[in-house]
Amino acid sequence: MADAKVYKNFINGEWVDSVAKKTFENRNPADTRELLGVFQASNEEDVKRAIDAAKEAYKKWRLVPAPKRGEMLFRLGETLVRRKEDFARPMTQEMGKVLKETRGDVQEAIDMSYYMAGEGRRQFGETTPSELPNKFMMSVRMPLGVCAMITPWNFPMAIPSWKLMPALVCGNTVVFKPASYTPLSAYNLVKACEEVGIPKGVVNFVTGSGGAVGIPLMKSDDVKLVTFTGSTAVGRTVSEVCAPSFKHTHLEMGGKNAIMVMDDAKIDLAIEGAVWGGFGTTGQRCTAASRVIVHKKVVKEFTDKFVARAKALKIGNGLDPAVEMGPSISEDQLNTVMEYVEIGKKEAKLLCGGNRMTSGDYKHGYFHEPTIFGDVDPQMRIAQEEIFGPVVSIIPCDSLEQAIDINNGTIYGLSASVYTQDVNKAFQAMRDSYTGIFYVNASTIGAEVHLPFGGTNHTGNGHREAGTAALDVFSEWKAIYVDFSGKLQKAQIDDIMP
Ligand code: UN1
User: Fold this and answer.
1) How far is the CA of 152 from the centre of ligand 1 (A)?
2) Nearest to 435 by CA among 294, 278, 255, 268
3) How does residue 496 score in pLDDT terms, banded at 50, 70 and 90?
4) CB-based pocket (< 6 A), ligand 1
5) Closest by alpha carbon to 402, among 250, 299, 273, 268?
6) What DSSP element (H or E) covers 37?
7) What whole-number distance in Å separates Cα of residue 343 and Cα of residue 376?
8) CA angle at residue 201 from 119 to 227, to 5 degrees?
9) Dist. CA 382–CA 367, nearest whole Å
10) With contact defined as beta carbons under 8 Å apart, do 361 and 340 qualify?
11) CA distances from residue 212 to 8, 208, 233 in whole angstroms, order as listed
């Protein structure tokens, strides 16, 4: 601990210690002997200072022309491109996912920077004819003010960027509380904002727990919007704490996503998708494919090949280029995985995996074998509840209609996919799956930044991030009427027909 780097909060353009001078450690989940840094365990007073700074900075930032704000985001994108490798490696160290994936995570932040930079010159409103003569009508987007961002550890730079870039281009200022497991990637993003000259107070960064930092953000009258990505349980708290003041909330929560494999599917392709969707990011994506619904005619072939692939996956430290799957993020998360494996063993048939890995170097990390259950009934707990780990359930089905019913039969609705060669079936599945994202002949993961991202039911609260949909979260519409007739005109009342 003596020589670990100490990282500070960023408030009003200054790097500062937390008021209480308390800190917490950031360790590598693949090898907990490795201490990556020490971060500020902030409290309500730190939060207040950050909000005050953001409120003050908002006065000027909202008046900076949007194309100029966009240019700053473009420069931020350029910086992230240059530093991609510098940011991907520490992300693998603090989060555990393999280097290819952390490069992708930084890339998603780059994509979002460039995309939202362009919105600096769009943010289109509408003009429309008035029912009265000599009257002009238009709608414009206006910023909200101070936005609080509470972000998860599974996409330590990508998800913050989904929130930060649209918030900034719309003219808001932000207080950013990152997940305590991945504060280093968040720090790197904020540092890049500082480097490209985003004015002081526009982006503030406060690390610490949900209780000490998150709750005061949600309760502050000066915060206009809380944007949160994380578990459905915490999302409910955000919703409840923000409700009394009618604060805007944007919530992205759990998923229990399914791949549907029809009897005419290209089975090997579907297996590639199931391996990537189920075990990529160690199953720790809200878009992970934790259910595979397979037509009975092909379920045996699919299962045999899928299990063989899972058993062959190379597990380890994500910095090793040969490794395909890293650890779980924490002891707690690993315990959750192991509890669900125990539940699964009672409910269904364990086909492979099922154990924590403790031999050799594994014993210093939170590693778990890729695990597959077969003959799973759609109502079983392992098929209903989000596990957020490398555990996949195979659910046999008789038809596309039944597969779609099973797909729709959870409390979530983020992402789903179908593998079929029949265009009619593909369109039917696209239409009838009640999810925010749908794929044909691809896995449940791989959303790009320029289409809306989010889900139905308990996955979200009706909002979407990314794409132009994000602008609807981070701005409010203002309808403007300009009467240049020089006289009182009454809408809905004056009869102007000759
Ligand atoms: C998440 O799962 O939390 O589509 C985000 C994907 C990624 C983003 C995932 N582009 O899987």
Assistant:
1) 11
2) 255
3) confident
4) 108, 154-155, 285-287, 445-447
5) 299
6) strand 31-40
7) 12
8) 55
9) 20
10) no
11) 16, 7, 18
Atom of ligand 1 at shortest distance to CA of 445? 11
> From CA 452, how far away is CA 468, in angstroms rounded?
7
Residue spans of alpha helices (H) in 146-229: 158-169, 183-195, 215-219
Query: In what order do the strands lie in the sheet containing 371-374?
Result: 349-352, 371-374, 391-397, 289-295, 257-261, 415-419, 437-440
Place of tokens 């878009």: 287
Q: Note the pLDDT tens digit of each residue in 51-60.
A: 999 999 999 9
The answer to whether the predicted template modeling score (pTM) of the entire model surpasses 0.90 is: yes
> How would you classify the pairing of strands 437-440 and 146-150?
unpaired
CA of 444 to the centre of ligand 1 (A): 9
Place of tokens 């650890």: 327
Per-residue pLDDT tens over the stretch 359-390: 999 999 999 999 999 999 999 999 999 999 99
- Where do the DSSP E strands lie in 97-134? 126-129
Q: How many CB atoms lie within 10 A of CB 29?
A: 29
Q: What are the residue numbers of the active site?
A: 252, 286
pLDDT at 2: 52
Decide: 368 and 328 in contact? Cβ < 8 Å. Answer: yes
Which token pair is 323? 């490794």
Backbone angles phi, psi at 139, to 5 degrees: -120, 140
Token digits of residue 466 = 């990314």
- Average pLDDT (208-212) is 97
CB 168 within 8 A of CB 69: yes
Q: Which domains does the chain have, with CATH numbers?
A: 9-253+460-479 (3.40.605.10), 258-440 (3.40.309.10)
